[in-house]
Amino acid sequence: MATSNGSCLKVPDIHDNTTIGGGVQDVYGEDRATEDQSVTPWNVSVASGYALLRDPHFNKGLAFTEKERDAHYLRGLLPPTVICQETQVNKMIQNIRQYEVPLQKYIAMMDLQERNERLFYRLLIDHVEELLPIVYTPTVGEACQKYGSIFMRPQGLYISLKEKGRILEVLRNWPEKNVQVIVVTDGERILGLGDLGCHGMGIPVGKLSLYTALGGVRPSSCLPITIDVGTNNEKLLGEELYIGLKHRRATGQEYAELIDEFMTAAKQNYGEKLLIQFEDFANHNAFDLLERYRSTHLVFNDDIQGTASVVLAGIVSALNLVGGNLGDHRFLFFGAGEAGTGIASLIALEISKRTNSPLDEVRKNIWLVDSKGLIVSSRKESLQHFKKPWAHEHEPVEKLVDAVNQIKPTVLIGTSGHGKTFTQEVVEAMASNNEKPIILALSNPTTQSECTAEEAYNWTKGRAIFASGSPFPSVEYDGKVFMPGQSNNAYIFPGFGLGLIMSGTIRVHDDLLLAASEALASQVTQEHYDKGLIYPPFTNIRKISANIAALVAAKAYELGLATRLPQPKNMLNFAESCMYTPTYRNYR
Ligand SMILES: O=C([O-])CC(=O)C(=O)O
Ligand SMILES: [Mg+2]
User: Fold this and answer.
1) Is residue 207 flagged as an active site residue?
2) CA distance linking residue 149 with residue 556, whole number of Å
3) Taking CB atoms and a 6 Å cutoff, what residues make up the pocket around ligand 1?
4) ipTM confidence score
5) Percentage with pLDDT > 70 across the chain
6) Are residues 144 and 221 in the same domain?
7) What is the longest distance spanned by two Cα atoms in the chain?
């Protein structure tokens, strides 16, 4: 029974605006009719009174109706006015706009997420282009750098070396029991900002809020995790407010054992269909972890695979502007880590499928530059394994500009994590070799971008097809306005994850990444091309995500990787019906 002091009551009928799966056996688990397992319509415990207002999952602030205020002991706890969610959204966006400093906007958004989850997501969805740079790159990068001083409440799980041997217990401390996606980092390579240790938590939190806002995966299914094995960041080690373990990183067996315990415990606790997204691990671990767990767990590395899928889509759609087939182009990467080699591999796979040519042959048109210069066969012995397929016959070349002049790429892709490395000389070399050079400056956040949009358009005299990892405003050159694209894995991972979840897929296959990429490219219309865009705007992202989810799920069924039966007849309708929407529920 309900009590006035805020303890729990049974709510016999909570109407939800969204139902999925026709009321039985929904994609989120067994026998549930609503998209949010924490509130089935028939028999749910939620807080009442003061505690209800303090519960971000249920709180509606001034949107509680008169009847709800009576029924749930809220009288007097709220001022008398009742306002709707739409008005609250308008008020909140005005409040956010009053902050001049992006980090203040970030803190205000995190505060809202902690106070009223549905309002947070409604606001983020309704103002996605404006707020994405706040909850995501670039501001999330700054938030991670200052995480120790802005830390208020844990927004996910911290699993440190102290928890070794007890990780299952730690997972069970998390209040949500039906977790379907974990985004996990060890903080060693946060965006292009390097080792931020435990302060990397901002990244899984940000990524998962996009899973919900952009991909419609319900918030209670999402679990952000930071694995803390120490940090090699001397500055953080000396900081009083650093929130992580204050010693250098554990490596080797100690590291592997902790990760392995985590992977085993996560699968044991949440089941075979749990999606684990690796995010912002350093190169060596990123490749090893993907290799080690891809055949036993549903794992996805966003930096290797998500980035690859989004970039391939952008290049495929850029062909509409520059002409030629994918196989006719020559690619030069600056940066041969996760993103660089991940994108290179997926492009090679796609060309190989399209042209029916062996991968070895296709790779010859794809070149990579790392910190030591062009990757060439004479360096093969000393190369890390993920670089070896790209070591082609060529004399050594040290500088990027020389590589551009000698290789003559049609597409230049920056994945270096180092800002300002596409110098005027480099960009001009691209422009002198190509009528419409494709230039992608993918490193994040904005400070690490290989060049700015303005530089790309100015130095190519408005001829560049440009996209970047972090957003840039539009640029005017010679009386014409250019709109740079944002080539960020945020286009892919939310819809990709939804596709896996809704189909009960148990393993990630490269063909699923190609399907996601194709789905994204198919969302770019003539209207976008006419504006020089190679990606659709983020304002359409939920529709884009539904399309990605549908194609990914269809491919998963085709490959025999999907376990949810029966297979939905109309995959797109099904994807849309699965998506969480943050409209307030009515509490009777
Ligand atoms: O988070 C982003 O904006 C894209 C990404 O995965 C990275 O840069 O590591
Ligand atoms: Mg990342």
Assistant:
1) yes
2) 44
3) 137, 191, 280, 302-303, 444, 469, 488-489
4) 0.98
5) 92
6) yes
7) 79
